[in-house]
Amino acid sequence: MKSILIRDTTREERIRIVTQALSVCGGSCSGCNGCDNMGGGIVDNFYRPYIDGEKEIAELNMEYNAPFVRG
């Protein structure tokens, strides 16, 4: 499996990675309440910092899940 780290991907590859990951249900993400998307909305906007090369996917996922993790 190819690395999905920012340093190992182009912006176009990151767009494809996010698009493929979000389309596993076969539906459109716009306005979706699936995938624990609280309140719906455009889910792929959440991954914009990854696509733009600002934050890794793992960082975004940890930030999202932090309120739900008991320490």
Explained architecture:
This is Purine biosynthesis protein PurH. The chain has helices spanning 11-22, 48-51, 57-65. The protein has one domain. The protein is mainly α and 71 residues long. The model has no long low-confidence stretch (mean pLDDT 79).
Number of distinct helices: 3
The beta-strand count equals 0
> What structural class do you assign from the helix and strand content?
mainly alpha
Subunit arrangement of the protein: single chain
- Percentage of residues in helical conformation: 25-40%
Global morphology: globular
Mean pLDDT rating: 79
* Alpha carbon gap, first and last residue: 32 Å
Largest sheet: none
Question: Which helices and strands occur, and which strands form pairs?
Answer:
Elements: H1 11-22, H2 48-51, H3 57-65
Keywords for this structure?
mainly alpha; 0% strand; 71 residues; 3 helices
